[in-house]
Amino acid sequence: MAGYLLKNCAAVIVDDGNGPRVGRNVDVLTDGPAIRAIGEGLDKGELPVGTVAQDSAGWFVYPGLVNTHHHFFQCFVRNRADLDWTKLSVIEWLDRIYPIFSRLTEECFYHVSVTAMAELIKHGCTTAFDHQYCFPRHAGKRLIDRQFEAAELLGMRFHAGRGGNTLPKSEGSTIPDAMLETTDEFIADCARLIDAYHDAGRFGMRQVVVAPCQPVNCYRETFVESVALARDRKVRMHTHVGEGESPVIQARHGLRTVDYCAEIGFCGSDAFYAHCWELTHDELRKMAASGTGVAHCPEPVYLVGAEITDIPAMSTLGLVVGLGCDGAASNDNSNLMHCIHSAYMLQCLSASTRDHPVPPPADFLGYATTGGAALLGRGDIGRLSPGMAADLFAIDTRRMDYVGTRHDPLSLLAKVGIGTPTDMTMINGRIVWAKGEFPGSTRPGCSRKPRRRSRPWNSRSQNQKQGEPTC
User: Fold this and answer.
1) Closest by alpha carbon to 160, among 109, 97, 122?
2) Rounded distance, CA 119 to CA 72, Å?
């Protein structure tokens, strides 16, 4: 793999492990999958054979963003007026949306993953965790396999959250029977995926997370067995916590969700929860003490959060916080860079009601980089320094959009907000997005033909009924 020399970058966010700083008018040299050097005049020294030089004057170079919570499969129901949260109660919305999801086919899961990952990459995301809990029976068990296929197509560093639901609707869940699995089915497929794909090595491009959907939609044994498998195979755990379900869990089990998960063992430095907007400070202290992290999804708060997630309290208490887009059910885009701005502005909006001050704008960039890397257990991504993965993105600030904004590159994404695609995104030392294109594309929005395809992309599944989506 050729290396790259990004010459004379206007600003580079450098972090050698002691916190981020801004390097001005410096070069970035990559060698294979890693960053080799950051400094002035690197073109005057000896460069690896095959290094490609790029004039980067005016570029602000950032560490690649790390998305810690998403639901790719929801992307084909974006911008649907008939599913507008403002016109429906939560129960009405669930009754409408889950029957749609239960009709998705294997091909839908592949193409929706390409769609979501492509949008993430275009906006600076280099590592994505997706919580895929939708497994319609007719679609089969190879849905995560197809996601890894999509990630390989685009060059995305991908952490697959193998989710699942086991509690029938008749026993209090919101899941149609067509999407239910047994605990044994769920655990067996998690184990299969770990054996087939999980790469815990440095710069690994594929990892698997054991991620039962949420306690309200699963039997207790599903979480107990998830902990046993994850700890045995040394992989991460993830689920939804603190998004309004605690009273339900307390009614069923006599404990609110945080204590329920802790009693089972679904907590610790190898576990992270999505959302957590309804949690008390005492519950946040317990999570901090156990090392359990939070994937904060700011944009869904606009639609479905009863209150704004208390990030200042989480920061003060020492919780590890990452950022996530969440699915199109509650966020109609896959732009994690925009979520940095949303997260900061939401906290400013609620500052007068908080016991703790809003963290500095630069911290919100940290949530989307080093924080996300920590949640996923990665010590090789999330910051720019020699020896770290060459995961980065660049913005050419020589545009009218950035007039008056270039004083503080660390705060730019949080305070100004960037709505346009990056000028370049690099993952594992490979440029995967540049000049408005995915290099090597053979079809619009893609880069090369997928490694394995079970059917032509527009064909129907053998078990697909007339009228079901073909994607």
Assistant:
1) 109
2) 11
End-to-end Cα, the chain, rounded Å: 35
**Residue whose C-alpha is closest to residue 9's, from 79, 57, 52, 49:** 57
CB-count exposure of residue 462 (10 Å: 0-12, 13-18, 19+): exposed
Report the alpha-carbon distance of residue 163 to residue 192 in Å, rounded: 13
Can you give the residue ranges of every domain in the chain? 4-63+381-434, 65-375
Query: What is the signed CA dihedral for 240, 244, 245, 251, rounded to 10 degrees?
Result: 160
Our measurement of the distance from residue 301's CA atom to the centroid of its chain's CA atoms, rounded to an integer in Å, reads 16
Estimate the crossing angle of helix 257-264 against helix 281-290, to 10 degrees: 20
Phi-psi region of 270 (alpha: psi -120 to 50; beta: other; left: phi over 0): alpha
Can you say how many angstroms the Cα of residue 212 is from the centroid of all Cα atoms in its chain?
Answer: 16
d(CA 349, CA 298): 12
Q: What is the torsion angle, in degrees rounded to the nearest 10, for the CA atoms of residue 135, residue 136, residue 139 and residue 144?
A: -10
The residues near 270 (Cβ < 8 Å, ≥ 6 apart) are: 230, 231, 234, 235, 236, 237, 377
Mean pLDDT, consecutive 10-residue segments, the chain of 471 residues?
Answer: 94 97 98 98 93 97 98 91 71 78 95 97 98 97 98 98 97 92 98 98 98 97 98 98 93 98 98 96 98 96 82 97 93 95 96 93 98 98 98 97 96 95 98 91 44 36 40 46
- Please state which architecture CATH assigns to domain 4-63+381-434: Roll (2.30)
Tokens of 113: 């993953």
Reference 381, options 5, 14, 22, 63; nearest CA is 63
What CA–CA distance (Å, rounded) separates 129 from 469? 25
Cα–Cα distance, 232 to 236 (Å, whole number): 11
Q: Which CATH architecture has domain 65-375?
A: Alpha-Beta Barrel (3.20)
pTM of the model: 0.93
Distance separating alpha carbons of residues 277 and 402, to the nearest angstrom: 33
